[in-house]
């Protein structure tokens, strides 16, 4: 990567770390919050015949993780273009 100066490099990494932190928070809320802490509340709701809390702990967290991978790739491509370090 060739940044214009150190200021651009710092700004790039700050935005990168901010994005990673936000995505990790989403993943934590879905996997730990919905799958463990709120499972009893969510089990009152049915989703395709399954209790919603069970669905989140078994499948929803995995689907969310895969979606976050695609969101990260999309956002990082945009960030790379913004700072001129794309391929």
Structural description of this entry:
The protein has 3 helices and 2 strands, in the order ααββα. With 87 residues, the chain is mostly helical. A two-stranded antiparallel ribbon has the order 1-2. β1 and β2 form a beta hairpin. α1 runs antiparallel to α3.
In short:
The protein has 87 residues and is mainly alpha-helical. It is built from 3 helices and 2 strands, in the order ααββα. A hairpin with a 2-residue loop joins strand 1 and strand 2.
Strand order, sheet with most strands: 1-2
Biggest pleated-sheet summary: 2 strands, antiparallel
Low-confidence stretches: none
Tell me the number of strands: 2
Helix and strand composition category: mainly alpha
Shape: elongated
Strand-helix topology:
Blueprint: H1 6-37, H2 39-42, E1 46-47, E2 50-51, H3 52-82
Helix pairs in contact: 1-3
Provide keyphrases for this structure.
3 helices; single chain; mainly alpha; 87 residues; elongated
